[in-house]
Amino acid sequence: ILQSDAAYVPLDPEAPGFIAAEVMSQCGLKYCAVTNGLVQQFQASLTKYITMEICGELPKFRVTLIQIEPRPVAETEQVRAQSADVPEHKGLAYVLHTSGTTGAPKTVRVPHKCILPNIVDLRSLFQINADDVVFLASPLTFDPSVVDIFLALSSGAQLLIVPTVMKKIPNRLARLLFKDHRTTVLQVTPTLLMRFGHRILKQDVLSSGSSVRVLALGGEACPSPALLSTWRHEDNKTCIFNIYGITEVSCWACCYKIPESLLLSINLAPWSPSDGHSRGEGEGQVFIGGEDRVCLLDGEDTAVPGTMRATGDWVNAKGDQLYYLGRRDRIIKRNGKRLNLDSLQQLILSLPQVQACAVGLYEGLRLLAFVVSSAAGDQMAASTFPSGSAQLGADATSLILKQLSLLLPSHSIPDTLVLVPELSLTPHGKVDMDALMRTYRRQRDFRFSQPDDLKQTLLTLWQEALGLPGNVNIDEQSNFLFAGGDSLKVLRLREDILTYMGVSSLNLLEVILDGTFSDVLQHLTQLLPAEESSASTFESKKHPAGPLSGIHGKRAHKSIETEQEEKPDVKVVRRASEVMEVNTRKADRTENLQVLGGKDLSRPISMSLSQSWSSDTGRCVDATPVILLRANQRSDVPKATVFIGSHSHRVQALDLVTGNLLWERVLGDRIEASAAVSRCGSLIVVGCYDGCVYFLCSDSGETQWLFKTGDAVKSSPAVDPVSGLVVVGSHDGHVYALNPQLQLCVWKHHCGGGAVFSSPHLQATHRRLYAASLGGHLLCLDLDSGHVMWSYCRDTPFFSSPNFFCGHVVIGSVDGNICCFSDTGELLWQFLTEGPVFSSPCFVPEQQKLLCGSHDGRLYCLNCSDGSLVWTFQTTGKVYSTPCVFDGFAAGRRGVLVGVASTDGTIWILDARDGQIVTSHTLPGEVFSSLVVWDNTLVIGCRNDYVYCLNLKSQLKDI
Fold first, then answer.
1. DSSP string spanning 538-562?
2. Element (H, E) at 43
3. CA-CA distance, 463 to 839, in Å (whole number)?
4. How far is CA 565 from CA 98, 276, 634, 764, 908, in A?
5. b/e string for 754-780 if b means 16 or more Cβ within 10 A?
6. Which CATH superfamily is domain 335-435 in?
7. If DSSP states are collapsed to H, E and C, what string results for 851-910?
8. What does the alpha-carbon distance between residue 580 and residue 630 come to, in Å, rounded to a whole number?
9. Where is the Carrier domain (predicted)?
10. Fewer beta carbons within 10 angstroms: which end of the chain, N or C?
């Protein structure tokens, strides 16, 4: 291909069809060489987006040549419109694309003159010769693979390629690399290297007689020299390099050989830029580029010499050296103090009990440390089926937390330590933080207390891994491989089991390979900690949104559990899938198997909505309900209360289960704003047309405090889970920060003109507040002082409420646009609908999507990163309400669901993946309220004066 002056682009066969089609369209791809075994899969995944014609076969290489042509844009909304004349560029070597998991795939067109110097320089620096064995660690879609391939080919060296599945089995991979093939050049990510564990690293990879001459670590932050030294035998002669670069300037930009003396110290290894020098002193972001090494991104058609690309990496410049500090988004403020997540990760890695670690923020607030313990990672079995490791895990967790409490200030200590059998990897070998967050969510949502539950769950996972329907019986003496499994299916089953159980087991893979269903069940039973069976039923209740988005109250960390006076567990469920937890004693536990009642999830399921109860409020209900859940001392079932206001001036407190009226208050005027619950759970906060903000006792409805603003309050309050401040907007144009405990206004700020109708949104971790006005102003304020951090103004009002996720602030505008801003106030993108947008956005974090309705009658699902359309759903009315995202598990359906109401009174339940309708239900009146979901219960207000509670149920279809 290269000799013919053509460029090549590798496509990931596991990527979704629309991503591959997008890349093909951007590249102007004309031909695809497809392995014969993947032709059917290729055609099935792409036939919707492209037309294809088989134009030849190469039997010698077992490859089929397929000519492709994009379908007309009108036939599909998944592939964005591209110019028919894709610019041709001479001198291109290859085209790569990003994964598309955080946005539309981005193509990078790499000229020969950009990558060739890399290969030549590294070949000289690493002194590659014909005797070397170079391990191809990266997939072809990751540019370090280009370096590996051509380092070997240009030197006459051997290139070692192993099946992808082998990279997931560290013991077998180590045997292949260091014993069978004596690998000499190893270019890997630190995470992939750490998967080997301390024992293999010291005995094989970096032993005294190791075959590895060159170890190049790149793609992630390099481990500290102190940590590297613990992996090496004292007589090891391997040269260790820290290499750095970005795909946008393919491939590597810096290479630093770590000297022996530095490996014996505790200082961080500096960078030594190979294409220039640092300019000045101090901290800043790294930019990479040069006169010749310029790649073309996406629609760029001209290589501009000297182009510099932002990396997003922060460094400390000292003279001509750069010291890596971390990713910009990995340096956060926590409790008002700066915290570098990468530095915290390195410190945890330095503990002797830790083999591997990854630190991240769950939903932007909860600090999690995912840890592979040394004891679990290096545990060697004395028998074929060893005993469980529950006590081992509990001991390791306690010891690690105790050590961290001695080494770190309180704001740096993780809220939760999550023990995992191994760190999840992306296809490029980096830490897959999204997968780890899903692991945390599943560990929190799945706990096994009864052997029958465990057996049923193992049966379901076993059937799913084998692709068997749920009604197929599994013989307890059957072996997984003999039942139709293969190596990939074995790995999937192992990962599913360990993910759901939240334990480590080095030998589970061998038990699955060599044992029976009964052996696997016995092995898993031994892994279960005894205290699991005593988990609180309240803690086992399902979060309404999985929790797919929400705000979790700050909890004080304690390294060693001590007995303390029990405080009531409180959860608050609001619109847009927001869940706030306060005063909780331990992480939530959920037992979905009990919720499901043993339903066979492999069979088709139909869903339906039915009315549970309704309550007459006396006038229209435009407000959105709020649900307060508190632990019930007399029962395992939490006490759940719905609070709702009405244009009849009344506020009602209703039992969520029965709909019985608990109390009712009549306030000074109409109530359109949704209520909030104070941090302590004892106060209901609601605004009123009389200009007052009422603080009512949640148990009785009695007024505890009343704060008067200058005009009607139609804005819904936001509650800071850290300080307890209540922030609310008023039609007088101000936002107010109120302290209900001291009963005073801490600060107020005028929002630049126009009433504040929309609800403020606070981001507790970074102490920021976002507010918008009908004057078209969007402001970011310091949550503690009210000072303006940035502002934005457009000519049309904001009725929509802002929302925040992963550095993106999104809001709808009356001019029909859904607007996305960076956390510095820069307009990143806007998506134009065909009607005014009064609906407020809601996020699907795990899928990097956002949802927002429009008065054109549609619900839009957009990609967070670039605003591209993922799917749209046409309702039968206008969409004023805010969509709600929740997990369908509690209702007996796997996957994420979306609930939204149209103004004609129809409640729609959709599949979040593609917007397909799951079920619907029509109320006898218009709806301007938004859904709130808890478990399989939905609550919403209606303009026929009633508030309704609906149940979402499932039943198995006949097959």
1. TTTSPPTTTTSS---------SS--
2. helix 39-46
3. 42
4. 51, 61, 17, 27, 44
5. bbbbbbbbbbbbbbbbbbbbbbbbbbb
6. ANL, C-terminal domain (3.30.300.30)
7. EEECCCCEEEEEECCCCCEEEEEECCCCCCCCCEEEEHHHHCCCCEEEEEECCCCEEEEE
8. 12
9. 452-528
10. C
Q: Are 423 and 372 in contact (CB under 8 A)?
A: yes
Over residues 535-541, mean pLDDT: 33
From CA 885, how far away is CA 865, in angstroms rounded?
Answer: 19
Tokens of 516: 């029976």
Q: Nearest to residue 498, comparing CAs of 393, 353, 378?
A: 393
Question: CA 884, CA 272: separation in Å to the nearest integer?
Answer: 49
Q: Both tokens of residue 499?
A: 């993910």
Contact 160, 134 (CB under 8 A): yes
Cβ count near 482 (within 10 Å): 8
CA–CA gap between residue 713 and residue 733 (Å, rounded): 10
Superfamily name with CATH number, domain 126-332: ANL, N-terminal domain (3.40.50.12780)
What is the band of 927 on the pLDDT scale with cuts at 50, 70, 90? very high
Rg of the chain over all Cα atoms, to the nearest angstrom? 29
Question: Tokens at residue 289, please?
Answer: 């580029």
What interhelical angle do 433-445 and 487-501 show, nearest 10?
60
CA distance 147 to 136: 9
pLDDT tens-place string over residues 247-285: 888 889 889 999 887 766 544 433 332 333 344 467 888
The residue ranges of every structural domain in the chain are 2-89, 126-332, 335-435
b/e code 440-468 from CB counts within 10 Å (16+ = b)? bbbbbbbbbbeeebbbbbbbbbbbbbbee
Cβ proximity of 886 and 548 under 8 Å = yes
Q: 193 burial class (0-12, 13-18, 19+ CB within 10 angstroms)? A: buried
Whether 750 and 729 have beta carbons less than 8 Å apart is answered as no
Pairing of strands 296-297, 308-318: unpaired
What does the H/E/C string look like for 87-137? Answer: CCCCCEEEEEECCCCCCCCCEEEEEHHHHHHHHHHHHHHCCCCCCCEEECC
Q: Nearest-CA neighbor of 113 among 131, 134, 93, 97?
A: 93
For residue 479, how far is the Cα from the chain centroid? 35
- pLDDT tens figures, 769-785: 999 999 999 999 999 89
pLDDT at 548 over 80: no
3-state secondary structure of 165: helix
Residue type, 493: L
Q: What whole-number distance in Å separates Cα of residue 715 and Cα of residue 771?
A: 10
Of 424, 398, 426, 268, nearest to 346 (Cα)? 268
The strands making up 917-922's β-sheet, listed across from edge to edge, are: 884-887, 896-901, 906-911, 917-922
Element (H, E) at 280: none
Helices (H), 371-450: 374-378, 390-407, 433-445
Report the amino acid identity of residue 688.
C
C-alpha span between 502 and 506 (Å, rounded): 13
Reference 685, options 723, 641, 717; nearest CA is 717
The one-character DSSP state at 253 is: -
CB 652 within 8 A of CB 664: yes
Q: How far, in Å, CA of 799 to CA of 840, rounded?
A: 8
**274 near 289, Cβ under 8 Å?**
no
Question: What does each C-alpha distance from 751 to 344, 733, 756, 791 come to in angstroms?
Answer: 38, 6, 8, 9
**3-class SS at 414?**
coil
